[in-house]
Write a sequence for this structure.
């Protein structure tokens, strides 16, 4: 889809040619090429930030992945999600024979050939993702998690060339945006609405008198609305991540306080034997569920033992996690090879996630932590029942 606008005040007008694309589409590649050839713009804008530009040009440098740092900083789930989403898009591209982002690469190649400046239009992807996760409600996170699990296990219809092209139809896009707004209002606000504002503002401040801007078709209508508006937009506000109260922080601090309080109550009112019972319940329940998580991740026996031993302690320490321990032990017995890092872009099925030693270690850490968390949820009511 092509949209043409004249923006700016008299004497400083700028011609904007918006090219709405699907990010995995041969027709989009041809549309970008034809438009740039015919329009001869002063600048070419692309819906990319600096990180995604470098990733598109050089490929993801998975070999630089620091597993220990990912596990230690608690980014296991985010890294696995990043691999899953990237590879899902890559697999869709394979189905229809197109590399993801091929239309952006076409624009970049033509800009280099014609010696036309490239103008990056999109907000830093790290800021966008952090804002999205920060502003999502619990119900939205649950819905999103269910959607990802369904995709992970192969649910959903097969993506074809025809479906990709169907997604570029204006009425369908508007309906999809409305549905996204109903299901995930926070995600739509951050990933779509705010980026529409950001991209339109970057177009307004682009150099030259004529710009061809290559953007996702889903952003077209929003960008056009903002380009036609005289309202001043502060990009600093759009780049600011809101500081919300982290209730998990209070929970992690409150758990050991509650546990010590229960121990104190048990010792004073029930005696020494009951207190030993409380400790035994805590050790067995948190340890067993943590070990079960490691077992489901097909961890090494020593990693499973490490999960069992560490969980009763780490669940009461705000700065530790059982998954860190089991994950680090797993790296000792199943250390990733160079080929495991090189094959990360091909990991897309459940079996591949388990068999690749990089993702396998991360799954061990993730499921151990999940098991420990379930253990805590079960252990406290069990202890209270014991003391009743």
């Amino acid at each position: 889809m092509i949209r043409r606008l004249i923006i700016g005040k008299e004497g400083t007008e700028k011609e904007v040619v918006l090219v709405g694309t699907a990010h995995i589409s041969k027709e989009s590649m041809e549309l970008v090429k034809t438009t740039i050839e015919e329009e001869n713009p002063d600048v070419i804008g692309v819906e990319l930030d600096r990180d995604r530009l470098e990733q598109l040009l050089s490929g993801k440098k998975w070999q630089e992945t620091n597993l220990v740092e990912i596990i230690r900083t608690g980014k296991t789930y985010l890294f696995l999600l990043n691999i899953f989403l990237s590879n899902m898009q890559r697999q869709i591209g394979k189905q229809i024979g197109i590399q993801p982002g091929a239309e952006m690469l076409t624009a970049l190649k033509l800009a280099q050939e014609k010696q036309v400046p490239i103008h990056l239009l999109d907000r830093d992807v790290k800021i966008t993702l952090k804002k999205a996760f920060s502003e999502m409600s619990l119900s939205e996170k649950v819905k999103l998690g269910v959607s990802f699990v369904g995709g992970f296990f192969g649910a959903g219809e097969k993506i074809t060339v025809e479906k990709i092209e169907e997604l570029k139809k204006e009425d369908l896009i508007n309906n999809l945006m409305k549905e996204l707004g109903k299901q995930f209002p926070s995600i739509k606000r951050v990933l779509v609405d705010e980026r529409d504002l950001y991209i339109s503002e970057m177009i307004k401040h682009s150099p030259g008198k004529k710009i061809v801007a290559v953007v996702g078709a889903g952003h077209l209508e929003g960008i056009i609305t903002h380009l036609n508006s005289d309202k001043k937009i502060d990009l600093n506000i759009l780049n600011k991540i809101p500081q919300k109260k982290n209730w998990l922080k209070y929970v992690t601090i409150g758990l050991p306080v509650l546990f010590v309080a229960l121990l104190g109550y048990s010792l004073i009112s029930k005696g020494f034997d009951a207190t030993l019972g409380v400790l035994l319940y805590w050790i067995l329940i948190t340890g067993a569920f943590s070990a079960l998580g490691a077992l489901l991740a097909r961890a090494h026996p020593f990693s499973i033992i490490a999960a069992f031993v560490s969980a009763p302690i780490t669940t009461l320490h705000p700065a530790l996690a059982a998954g860190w321990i089991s994950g680090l032990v797993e790296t000792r017995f199943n250390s990733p090879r160079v080929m495991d890092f090189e094959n990360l872009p091909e990991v897309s099925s459940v079996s591949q996630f388990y068999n690749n030693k990089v993702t396998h270690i991360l799954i061990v850490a993730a499921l151990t932590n999940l098991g420990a968390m379930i253990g805590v949820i079960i252990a406290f009511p069990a202890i209270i029942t014991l003391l009743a």
About this structure: The two ends are 68 Å apart (CA to CA). Residues 247-387 form one domain. DSSP finds 19 helices and five strands in the chain. The chain has two domains: 2-238, 247-387.
